[in-house]
Amino acid sequence: MNCQSVQNKVLALPDPRQVGEPLRDHLERCGSCLAWWKHAVRLERMLERLPAPPPPAGKKAAVLEEITAGGPLIATVAHEAPTRRPLISRPVIAYAGGIAAAVMVAFGLWLALKPGTKNPPTVQAPRHPLLEKVIQRDRELARAETPSRRLEILSSLADDLAGETRGLARAATPEELKELAGWYNKVVDDGLVKQAERLPPNSLTPDQKKALLNSLSRKLADTQMEVEKLSQEVPPASKPALQKIADSARDGQQKLAKLAGEGV
Amino acid sequence: MLRWSVTFFACLALAAWAGAQGPPLSVDVQLRLLRENRTLLNDLVNQGVALSAADDLVGRTEKCEETVRTLGAAIRRAAEAQNADRIAELGDHLNGVVNEALIPNLEEGSRSIDPSSPEAARLNAIRTRAAGNLGDLRDSLPATGTLGDTEQVKTLRSTLAGLEERIKEK
Description:
Chain A has 264 residues and is mostly helical.
């Protein structure tokens, strides 16, 4: 930075008394520029002390006339668009919601607990889950259009009966268990196995037939295992019924496995 | 906001479902119900096996109509025993079998079977028999008196009248 440029920069400053770091460095090293800067500072102070001369008479009116000669300076005054504020602020909504919820809860409690207006409670008799399941299976069988679907439903019916037997094995009489075992045997022997034997050759591909029969066979094997395990824990008089279910399951499982093997 | 709404309604649905399940039945109650239903269960299991052996639509519809008759007989026995709750339970099952199996099969038969074929004649006979049996069952239920004035019997009588009309229309 040479002296000429430094002096130009000092002149360009709004206030020469306040110089930046680069200029200050030069001024400290350069005596001529320092002297020049001091002159500039002194001149600035003198200008500040000069009194402002009074304006000429009529000058203000002339200036205003000159400004407004081209029409109004501001044609329209812009109005600030009102900010859209919600009618109800979020905290108010939250409080109102809380109060509404509390009122509803209180009303519900009042309805539930108010004395003298309760109807006598109607206790509905329990419904039989096994009956519901068996009817559901019958409904499904009536609508089943394919032999494979019928096999799946029969397998579910057998599971329902085996499950009921397991659930009641410790409490039911041997005769009741025998009856349940008879139903299970009927579904497996006369339903599942017989329908599997009658599967039309073209109703499934060999792979599909094998997969279906193996799946049904595995379910029977599971039932056999579970019922045999349970038969160790029931009174001796109940064992024959459980053994009958296990035998039916084993027999059905073997027949289905054989059919699955023949299908490929 | 959406997440909270979904969570809220999921919890509500779960609570409604859990409430609808009711308490699990004790072994004693299950045994009592098994004893009460053993004859009916025996018939229904046999009919299920017979249904699985019915290869064609008309055969399945015939077996299905037998199931409706079996349930009708059980409802009559419940009426003789003045057991309104059992009438309601069995009536719901009968309604389900007619609505979800018998009527759809009759409808399908009307669409798919040649009206001049022997199968169509069998189907018509099933329809006539089913409608007649449902009407007889409704008439066998008392319209007045202790049992007839119960909500369960009134509801079933009205349901049976509706089912009979629907079957006649098919």
